[in-house]
Amino acid sequence: MQVDIGNVLSATPGVSRDGLERLDDDVAVAHERIETGRADAEHGYASLNLPETVDTDAIRQAVSRFDDPEAIVTVGIGGSALGSATIDAVVGGDAETYYLDNVDPEATTSLLESLPLSETVVNVVSRSGTTAETLANFLVVREAMADAGVDWADRTLVTTGESGNLRELADQHDLPALDVPDGVPGRFSALSTVGLAVPALQGADLDAIVAGARAEADRLSGSLFESPAYAYGATSYALTQRGASVNAFVPYTESLEYFAEWFAQLWAESLGKDGLGQTPARALGATDQHSQLQLYRAGPHDKQVTLLRPRERDDHGIPETDLEGLSYLGGSSLGDLLDAEFEATEASLAAAGVPNVRIEVDRVDAQGIGELLYAMEAACVLYGELANVSTFTQPAVEWGKKAARGLLGGGDFAEADAVADKTRLVID
Amino acid sequence: MQVDIGNVLSATPGVSRDGLERLDDDVAVAHERIETGRADAEHGYASLNLPETVDTDAIRQAVSRFDDPEAIVTVGIGGSALGSATIDAVVGGDAETYYLDNVDPEATTSLLESLPLSETVVNVVSRSGTTAETLANFLVVREAMADAGVDWADRTLVTTGESGNLRELADQHDLPALDVPDGVPGRFSALSTVGLAVPALQGADLDAIVAGARAEADRLSGSLFESPAYAYGATSYALTQRGASVNAFVPYTESLEYFAEWFAQLWAESLGKDGLGQTPARALGATDQHSQLQLYRAGPHDKQVTLLRPRERDDHGIPETDLEGLSYLGGSSLGDLLDAEFEATEASLAAAGVPNVRIEVDRVDAQGIGELLYAMEAACVLYGELANVSTFTQPAVEWGKKAARGLLGGGDFAEADAVADKTRLVID
């Protein structure tokens, strides 16, 4: 992976070369802290050790019972779904993959009606075994299988912590079970059992994914000028400090749409605390040039734009044409057009003084997605160190969980009472 | 459609009841301007007349040649795709629908390989008939059909302006052709031929969609306290002025995911100019509570959160369970859980002082999506009047279009030269 930060040097907001060099002293200190955390396998920092600690053989072994499923349904939410979906969108396989990562009754019913349940593997993921959405969906899927005469215990894989409901179920019914590793928060778990079970079911090359991650781990160093991951994290931090409160994250390839979503969770949940943080805004190139670019160029100067592309991809030629004004397209290719639009958009942002960062990988494949996932995680951890926030926690979501539980009759919570006290000003 | 702005009154940033009443004088003036624009069918304002001017019979007639297609591929980008995708995601039909709204060669190849081309309708949409991405994709699809021995002219529907490449093709080959209406920018065209052709192909109830839109049109008035659409537009404007530079738009139903994307284009491209605008951030409830909520609650107070749900939906029960700590879910339903999470999240944002607006529709159906589309368009036009921006133009995207064209050898453009001059600072 390569990062080009040339277009932040004289943008508004921007970071000068001198500013980056001063910041590099802090990067050195942060890197020391991160290395200590890794050496001690501290909570969160342990995530950056996954390229060394993940056991791909154990993952392959756990899924070996399932022979060539037609469909794989992952039941999990947030970090229990996004990393897996991100990797699967890149490496793929023969099975259709689905994610029950919401509790929308219409979407769930529709999915269950269309699935070949007897040829489907259910992959349930929850560290605690008590995540309300995940367990509700699991109960629903299990019932659908029973109604269809399918033995759910034959078709279920569990990824969970050392104890809890799912672990007990796995023990009772002899389900294959993978361990969520210690010290790895959900949004940092893509390179663990959590993110790799579906690719393993698909027969993907897990070791290539891990090798990509390891390559980026090996490049972490005490200087942002030597590590692409830290260059991205430090530059994003400096731009946020200077007013880039939004990070518009724009991959120029559809296979990385989920990666942008995964990044949005990583960035928002890790760095959004103490009144700080940078808001991720997901977009897709070249499509969103026809949707968001007007705002990025001519709206408030409160954004960093991250443009991401592979250096190589399989291409598709555009036929010759005599259509008026379009002969220049003929004999070219969709890839040429997409690359021209990438470079044109980057230059158009620079011309408007909007700071932008280019990220490139060789290819969007198993190795490439490993590089990207690891590098963005390391970038995020570095940003968190520089901002002095508690990167690996998410305390602000507890309030709503208690309120929801209280509303459903799951206990007495003061938070649930607040719902009834809502101030209303209804225009009907 | 109903809007509840109670949770903006004492938030940070917030708008007091007095502030809203002062703003209402400006709303009255803006409403007058909008009504004049509608009466004269001025560019842009004419969009708000679509519930009266759209000819649903003509749309049904144009698609009547195509009998029950297995698949529909819309070739269009930005406003030529998003409105159609938004409506189709709600009203649906028997055909699988796809959107070639990008120029990703890998995604395009993969789609063409999987399509039943002889049973597919191709719906090409471009007002000018020269949109590079759309015409390139159309050439590619046409070639794929020829290679498969399918007569493309038998399977193609065109929606375009009075002249240009697509109009000429339609005339030459006797293709069914729909007119893009005058005075309607792409992002305001969902309720026209552009957005309704696919629902017509699907046999959906176009008149119910239009009736929903008309119901909201009938409620526009000179006061934000009397019109839900204006309440949303005026409140969003006032919050932006006070520091809510981001609008996190969060439907609590998967069938409105495209609607959030459509809204993002409407809001960004219409209002993002002259250094002004509010950045849309798309999210999905309840999923993104596990991704974005930490940031919304505990990050910078630079956001308005828009929470959107239907009052009724088809539900799905959750089986009884003896799993530890989860008995409260049993006998409940996924819809109950989703509603509890909606209300809990809303209250949790209020408790953190984050301004949030609740939008509700009776159901997400043909009528409901008509209401939502029209109301957000009217809200956007009102916001544009209050901010004094040129709502219906998108001048900032021209620079990049010229640069891309120059890079592809489509003429000499100074913008293309700027690409070569890029400042580089590469960390590799």
Structure, explained:
With 428 residues, chain A is α/β, with parallel strands linked by helices. Chain A has 2 domains: 2-36 and 211-387, Rossmann fold (3-Layer(aba) Sandwich); 49-207, Glucose-6-phosphate isomerase like protein, domain 1 (Rossmann fold). Chain A is built from 16 helices and 11 strands. Chain A has helices at 17-39, 50-53, 56-63, 79-91, 105-114, 132-147, 165-173, 193-201, 206-217, 228-241, 257-271, 293-298, 334-351, 366-387, 398-407, 414-420; strands spanning 2-4, 71-75, 96-100, 120-126, 156-160, 177-179, 246-251, 279-282, 303-310, 356-361, 426-427. In chain A, the strands form 2 sheets. A 5-stranded mixed β-sheet of chain A has the order 1-10-9-7-8, sandwiched between helices. In chain A, strands 3-2-4-5-6 form a 5-stranded parallel β-sheet, with helices on both faces. In chain A, β2, α4 (79-91) and β3 (96-100) form a beta-alpha-beta unit. Chain A starts with a strand and ends with a strand. Chains A and B meet through β1, α5, α6, α7 and α11 of A and β1, α5, α6, α7 and α11 of B. β1 of chain A pairs antiparallel with β11 (426-427) of chain B. Chains A, B: Catalyzes the reversible isomerization of glucose-6-phosphate to fructose-6-phosphate. Chains A, B: Its main location: cytoplasm. Chains A, B: Keywords: Cytoplasm, Gluconeogenesis, Glycolysis, Isomerase.
Global structural class of chain A = alpha/beta
- Distance between the amino and carboxyl termini of chain A: 52 Å
Global shape of chain A: globular
- The CATH architecture classification of the largest domain in chain A is 3-Layer(aba) Sandwich
Radius of gyration of chain A, CA atoms, in whole angstroms: 23 Å
What is the number of helical segments of chain A per DSSP (H or I, 4+ residues)?
A: 16
CATH structural fold name of the largest domain in chain A: Rossmann fold
Averaged pLDDT of chain A? 97
CATH class of the largest domain in chain A reads Alpha Beta
Strand content bin of chain A: 5-15%
Could you name the CATH homologous superfamily of the largest domain in chain A? Answer: Glucose-6-phosphate isomerase like protein, domain 1
